[in-house]
Amino acid sequence: MAQGYLGLKQNQELEIVGEEYFDMLAMCSFFQDFEKDNDDNILKCKMHDIVHDFAQFLVKNECFTMGTSSDGESSCSYENARHLKMTLEDDQASFPTIICSIFKIRSLIVWWKYNDSSSTNGAEAKNANLGSKKYLLHLELYFDYISEASSTEVCRKDEAVLDALHPTPNLEKLFLTGYRGMSFDWMAPLTQLRKLIIRNCIKCEHLPTLGKLPLLQTLQIRGMRSLKRVGNEFLGIKNNDSSSSSSLIFFPKLNRLILEKLQNWEDWEYEITEDFAIMPCLSFCDIAFCRKLKALPNHFLQAASLERLNIYGCPVLMQWAEIYHHLPITRYPAGMTRVL
To answer: Which residues form the R13L1/DRL21-like LRR repeat region domain (predicted)?
Structure first.
């Protein structure tokens, strides 16, 4: 799916077609050791050993897993790499300069395992020149601290690294985990982005501006415990000036939204007077363990496209009657209809 091999036809959903292909491969014994839930849905499985060995043979010059020592270099040749996963776990490890010479890379996973004394900085990360990697479609960044440190220095370092890694606007998938900075300043230009996952970015107080991304389909935000309010900045409206945006559709393609463990999130409200569409294609929404969230925005109560809404662990949310009367919901938890 990530490599665009499925050959979608018009009006086909990527996940549905991918599931059909998976089922066909499973029937042909490409996978083994299945784990299933109570409804017989497959939770996880393993690739058959023979298939795994054959796949490794086919991509032996394109897929690499890389670790770095304190010199940040490796003896291997990665010039033809298409998919690279690397881990920086030495306190003195610097960002590998080898990234500069990989021009056709399509997916990159970087995992930092460091503490306050680690040497990785913005200048080194900038040398990776991700903005020039026009084939890069999938980027995962993990900031994994040995300690729970969240000092000002850590915040500054993470912000410098993230700003310096500014990726190509062709990026389609971005996963960001453990970032300790306070803001995301470069996501708005990622106009080809289709999937965004942000997890455990504990210092961020505001969501990035995402409403004008024309192709974004899946958005997951989890564990952003400093977030207290979601407002106009999420849509991309500044200074309460909605008049210039009245003809826009915000989140025009978003169909899957997951918001979880936002412990201090209280308000979700847009200060707007114009009548325009927000998330008109949203079909699935999961809001979980947002224990201080008071209310859903009006566009949720007008979401004709919404097919599945899961809300749990939100004890102060007081809109159940409105949700019941306005949304096309066909199933509720046991006993809920008695309180509506």
So the answer is: 120-224
Residue in the block written with tokens 């803001």: 183
- Residue 108 makes CB contacts below 8 A (sequence gap 6+) with 83, 84, 85, 99, 130, 133, 136, 138, 139, 140
Residue the block writes with tokens 């000002």: 152
Q: Report the mean per-residue pLDDT for the chain.
A: 77
State the Cα–Cα distance between residues 7 and 153, nearest whole angstrom. 46
How far apart CA 171 and CA 269 sit, in angstroms, is: 29
Token digits of residue 253: 């393609």
Instruction: Judge whether 82 and 62 are in contact, CB under 8 Å.
Output: yes
Give how far Cα 273 sits from Cα of 218, 238, 245, 269, Å.
27, 14, 11, 12
CA atoms of 149 and 178, how far apart (whole Å): 12
Find, among 80, 90, 137, 136, the residue nearest to 113 by Cα: 90
| Spatial CA neighbour of 309 closest among 295, 325, 319, 323 | 323
pLDDT at 120: 57
| Rounded CA separation 276/272 (Å) | 10
Helix (H) or strand (E) run with residue 36 in it? strand 31-36
What count of other Cβ atoms lies within 10 Å of the Cβ of residue 279?
23
What residues have CB less than 8 Å from 111, skipping those under 6 apart?
85, 86, 87, 88, 89, 142, 144
Around Cβ 271, how many Cβ atoms within 10 Å? 10
Q: Please, are residues 105 and 81 in contact by the beta-carbon 8 Å criterion?
A: yes
Is the pLDDT higher at 230 or at 180?
230
**What is the average per-residue pLDDT within 66-94?**
58
User: What pTM value is reported for the model?
Assistant: 0.73
pLDDT of 125 strictly over 80: no
d(CA 322, CA 314): 16
Separation in Å, CA 250 to CA 224, 231, 259, 262: 22, 13, 18, 22
